[in-house]
Amino acid sequence: MRLRCALLDDYQGVATEVADWSPVDGRVDVVAFREHLDGEDVLAAALADFDIVVTLRERVPFPAGLIARLPRLKLLIASGMRNSVIDYAAAQAHGVTVCGTASSSTPPVELTWALLLGLARGIVQESGALRSGGPWQSTLGADLYGRRLGLLGLGKIGSRVAAVGLAFGMRVSAWSPNLTAERAEEVGVELAASKEELLADSDFVSVHLALGDRSRKLLGAPELALMNPSAYLVNTSRAAIVDQDALLDALRTGRIAGAAVDVYDAEPLPADHPLRTAPNLLATPHLGYVSRANYATYYGQAVENIEAFLAGAPLRRLP
């Protein structure tokens, strides 16, 4: 009997185009879901007849309750090699093999700079005004050269963001709970003495931390109040690191000059979500990892994972 494979959250309809699925032709029927499946009941009903599921990043949780309601599921493939919303113990208990794929840090680095530059130069506002017959020049761009870029996190992504900032002639500093002076010196940036110092001294603050107990709501109202009124915040990391209500208040009251956000507490973002209408906010629909090369890796290696599973030798097993 042919197996059935579900591809979740294929919003652009490209999952079967960016990779070669022919190696599993005749053995696996592939079905792409263009719309997000939200909630355990909806997922259980939609995926009941599938043996394989390919999920994007951490958009769809697979808790024990859902896994128990998918009796045919034998292989779950997640893009990336880290996924915090899959119950691995439950998967093992129900005989479900979980595999991952490689994921490049280049797309989120590039998006971070697209957002930061968009904020600094009012790109969306100015482009919209030009195309709609609005005023000719209405913003005064914020310079990057000589300004301070503060990075919360100096890992694989943060260090590459730092390199670009240095190339722009910015003064770059960084802080994280475990960051050492040696690591900061290795990247060529200054080590901020504290989170509070970094926030108070930076013209641009960009978040590049993994989500955990210590980073959840790391930036709340007291922390945002430390930022200069002319400063900007960029978050392409995890929504829960920045307190959403505090950010909304900071934007509405003009406490900070603006923010750019690519990650949200609910995705896709509900139509009535307050972030959709927040002032001085540049918002994108979680595009950090969405690039052709990255998708080719995700789905190309998903095919490899399926082939290996069918041959009895699974690749890239998680956790």
Residue stretches low in confidence (pLDDT < 50, at least 5 long) are: none
How far the N terminus sits from the C terminus, by CA atoms, comes to 29 Å
Strand line-up in the sheet with most strands: 8-7-6-9-10-11-12
Whole-angstrom Rg: 22 Å
Q: State which percent range the strand residues make up.
A: 15-25%
Under CATH at level 1, the class of the largest domain stands as Alpha Beta
Number of domains: 2
Helix and strand composition category: alpha/beta
What's the count of strands?
A: 12
Describe the overall structure:
This protein is α/β, with parallel strands linked by helices and 319 residues long. It is 32% helix and 15% strand. It has 2 domains: 3-104 and 291-310, Rossmann fold (3-Layer(aba) Sandwich), CATH 3.40.50.720; 106-283, NAD(P)-binding Rossmann-like Domain (Rossmann fold, 3-Layer(aba) Sandwich), CATH 3.40.50.720. Strands 8-7-6-9-10-11-12 form a 7-stranded parallel beta sheet, sandwiched between helices. It has a 5-stranded parallel beta sheet with strand order 2-1-3-4-5. Helix 4 (106-121) crosses helix 6 (156-167). The longest helix has 19 residues, at 292-310.
Features of the shown structure:
Rossmann fold; 319 residues; alpha/beta; 5-stranded parallel β-sheet; single chain; globular; 32% helix; 2 domains
